[in-house]
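Page header: ASSEMBLY MODEL / three components / 737 residues total.
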Amino acid sequence: MDILTINAFNLIKDAFNSMPAFTDADGNFVSGIYGALFKLKSIVKAGEYKKISVSFENGADHELSPAVKSQTDRLKDILAGYTDTALLSAEGCDATDALADFLEKEISLVSPLGKAAAVPVFEVKTSFTSDLSEVEELFSKASKKCCVSASSKNPKDNYIGFYPIVDTVDAGGSIKKKNIIGISLCYEDETAVYFPVQGFITADYLGNKLTELSKSCNLATFDIKSSYNLFTPYEIESRDYGYRDDQSYNEGPRCFDTLIGAYLNDPNKNDYMIEDISKEYLGLNLEKRADLFGKEALANADQNVLSAYACKAAFVCKKAAPLIGKKLDKDGMEGLFYNIEMPLSYILFAMEKEGIIAEREQLKIYGDKLKVRIDELEKDIYSAAGVEFNINSPKQLGEVLFEKLGLPAEKKTKSGYSTAADVLEKLAGEHKIVADILEYRGLAKLKSTYADGLAAFIEDDNRIHTSFNQTITATGRISSTEPNLQNIPMRTELGRLIRKVFVPKEGYVFADADYSQIELRILAHMSGDEGLIKAYHDGEDIHASTASKVFHVPFAEVTSEQRRSAKAVNFGIVYGISAYGLSRDLSISPKEAKEYMDKYFEAYPRVKEYQERVVKEAKENGTSITLFGRKRPIPELKASNFNIKQFGERVAMNAPIQGTAADIMKIAMINVFFRLKKDKLKSKLILQIHDELVIETAGDETDIVKELLTKEMESAVTLVVPMEATCHTGSDWYEAK
DNA sequence: AGAGAATGCAA
DNA sequence: TATTGCATTCTCT
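Prediction written out in full:
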């Protein structure tokens, strides 16, 4: 009777809906929590009830918006912090002053300023329309309002923001289909409008409108790659030349991807969401897409909510683009952005769209073959162990090996025994089960990740369409997901056979070209080391040459063992070496490894100077930089923790080299792509694997493409050492590599 | 369900 | 106690 039970969901919902929403510094809604805590405090203070109980029971979960749900969860966490945990139980806790004080304190914590305050809000008016004549008129207005003169310098402060709404739906296997269900347009500060794909307003229609706009206006969006299936910007459509190291991007209208720009400005982040860009560059809290729509298909979303969201996003693109651009300019990355990354985004789109044929039946046969052997090994392992257990579980495997069988353990990981391959290899002599486990592991990996894994990505056109991601890596490399086609096995013959399922279409072959030691050549260039440069000019085997210098033996007398060691040292140098790391790689003592390194630096003194220089500069500027101006901040260098600082130093040594290699490959891709286009060849660029490009080549174009590919890669950049690329052709990827 | 750890594949 | 990634499986929350 004296107890009041309050439902938290209703509390949050009422509070959230009855006042202007605001968020915390991370962009999460907290106004519902704020209101709920405030109401609770009032009730406690009023003293009408002796006991208070907050219930988190909820019968209609699916009807709640994600924003309400997440705030309710957070409220639960907050209230769980109260000393009397009966607050959350049915009995309830006493409505004391202590509870009121606790609530008061929590109220002050739900805002970044220590008190709740409304944050800046979007002042843009939003609407939507599917009326053809209205849409026509709006596009025409946009075009007039944002027209950029083709002759005079582009001020780059006036953008038409657009934001496509893309719905992702499962299409079986691991395949996801992406549908554009509308786009929003923002061409003035005050208003934005959303055009749902509907009736006469088709995706094609909207795409053509955008292409038209791109002829005369600067367009800004977020993740432009995802809108290329809607439209091709005029600058791409009309382009017939490769990379240009000039400022022609200052003339004529350009497209601006705020995602790519934000990535270049801060490449260390893991993800770039438009909400973050809104917050960071404009100080505006754009609602998180997941908060508004949850996991529901956007096609079913409330048109008003979707429209408002899309409009605000377009507004963010319009307003953030000039600011992102200004920062790029200030940091000397405008050229990198306009001359490399923006055109590259289209190339990646085209490569994804093209895809690569994977033969389903061959993959199945391969997988079945693996299965036979896996089953055999499984049986042997169980009988040797005396129990059946999950071999894939490091925990269970560790128990079997190190407790049941009593093999000597190296307790290495946080959660128990390490069963990593290098540990197991050392135990191979102890028990015959170990070799079986290693073989089992290898085959299971091939089956699950490659045989079965890849098969799930084969679409109706018999092709795998990977995603190339341009804004993931801290160094400027591209990455590949769903599936990752940049880590198809190569080292072992059995694994390498997977590549046989990747074949060109009828009448075509693969042309596969890779750079020869691009990173070491870049090191030679950037360090200016005469010995390294000379070795490359003389066309020497660089690892043998290094071995000759490090071990002080004539070039002709270098043993294969010495060459192998030298190769490992060369790799280590590129990664930012430590004696311990090298010793582990070569299975030698750290002392010996240190000697190798000292001799290496004696042989190539400018390399040592170079490494010291880049670390010093990185410490001064807080960033590393590539030949083409790509920057990577290295906050680790300021750390007080020795290991973290050491890591920062290795990063400072590696990032300019790996990053420059990435820059060069991107330039080569631009040159290759637009050369194929200009020469109207049927052959298409389909894969990039960091230092390797694959072209699906029409049979009658084989010689031309081989020549073109090699030449464009080798001449992408001119360094003090020659760039060398080797091209092979074949009727599958295995043969072509 | 989602996160993190362990493992292993590539350049 | 070497650089950059991504996928799978297991395990815990």
